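## retry 2 of 3
previous attempt timed out at serialization; input unchanged, resubmitting
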Amino acid sequence: MTDLDSRGALGAPAVQWPTVSPVNDDLLSPGARRGPRPGAAGARSGSSSRARVKPPVPATGAWRKGDPVGRRQFADVGTFDLESGARLPDVRVAYETWGTLAPDGSNAVLVLHALTGDSHVSGPAGPGHATAGWWESLVGPGAPIDTDRWFVVAPNVLGGCQGTTGPASPAPDGRPWGSRFPRVTTRDQVAVEIELARSLGISSWAFVVGASMGGHRVLEWALLGPEAGIDVVSIAAIATAAQTTGDQIAWAHPQLGAVRADPGFRGGDYYDAADGEGPHVGLGIARQIAHATYRSARELDERFGRLPQGGEDPFIDGRYAVQSYLDHHGDKLARRFDANSYVVLTESMLTHDLGRDRGGVEAALAQITAHALVVAVDTDRLFLPADCARIAAGIPGAEPLRTLRSDFGHDGFLIEFDQLGPIVADFLGERAGVRD
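## retry succeeded, writing output
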């Protein structure tokens, strides 16, 4: 796969798009190293990018017992009765921490990841961690969430695939849960995180922050935490919603269908499949659908437009550059994630409704006592700015809605550090209420 364009199509405005490293596809900030744009002469000098040989995709990219642990720590938090009526025994949570918990416990911060994230918020890629920290510009020594001051905890979510109990984990009979893994809800996931907090001796979170799917759990934490005796002083809900919308459910539906329609999915029991024979095609297509909703129309049109992929002719059997870009993202996710977890977590997002059994969304938001920061992305076409405005309007202690100005759509919360960092740092400095 060639390095992707940072400048856009010929004649387009001089937008500094983040580029993608040809090695690991990590987003680089605008102004960082750039390679040739798709279709440029340098990209055409060789054969089609599809001709490059890659190793077969493993049946799952899940972390499994025996793999390098990396920075993970583990907590066994017991058996849970789920909202579905199922019972999930022997739940284990993988998590990472940074900083030192204050003697009075007043400086604890909880960071909650999005759909395909994990506990590795900050730190380099390496054994046990396929990618570098997904929010390391925001979390670390001297960063907006300064780990010299704050004790930061980041768990892998229930149903995930990076160490917390999920479909790839062993069931009581020793075999992977696979198709037998029960459905879980956002509230189930927060119930598990509450037990993790108790196991760590944390009775108060100074700050709970998350974006997208992580933002769902932030809002549930603001209600379930105090109910469980764990204070939540302040929260930040970023590029998220208080209730999954019909539009979001509609976008999720073909993603779930793509995974389940892959013959390699085998109904969810594919963990003994050879490399190249798992559900990577369906998972890759699901990711492509999702990724198109994560970015803005302007970015895709100006960054790629109708340019052909280098060395390929779309009028014969080749691709346009934007098709190659989506293929690349689909392949990358299939190599580092698990198809069952993608299904389980996507379905958990569909259950999200803060107002369920609480008198409706506005009634539930009005019950939140935490100071609240709510941040939208102006070009987000998955979690609309109106979804965020509803949260900010409904929480009594919310600051006025903050909006990131971005060409990158929903993924702006991962990219626009120069805007998001100061917003978070200012909120923490003024609103978290933690004694220096």
